[in-house]
Write a structure and sequence with these properties.
Length: 144
Amino acid sequence: MTRLLRTALMVSLVFPVAACGGGRDRPRGDLAASRVTTIGVNSYLWRATLDTLSFMPLLQTDSAGGVIVTDWYANPAAPAERMKVTVSILDQDLRADAVRVAVLRQINRNGQWIDAPARAATAQKLEDIILTHARDLRRAALAS
């Protein structure tokens, strides 16, 4: 009878400890999920937007609302033209339709800044650059 009790006691002590070990077959969490929202919007899109617009002075940033507004920027190669960019991050997921870019353009005529149409391709190109960089950031997070 003591032998049976001793065996039962050993089994009850060993099996719970054995269940805690290993972990090789446990599924790993997706550390680089497409939805990373510690700041209110998708972190990859937010970081990619800041990186993409880093050459322009920032006027306003709202990470909770997902809005970044730059101040007017004049390219030194074309000082008679300046641009202002507003980027809205619309979703918490890393998706192609989660970023909207609006570009304002002005040209200098006789010392006065006059509104001029911005090329639609400019906003589209900025969206593409932001999305590509956000995907690269996510891939880098997956690799590490």
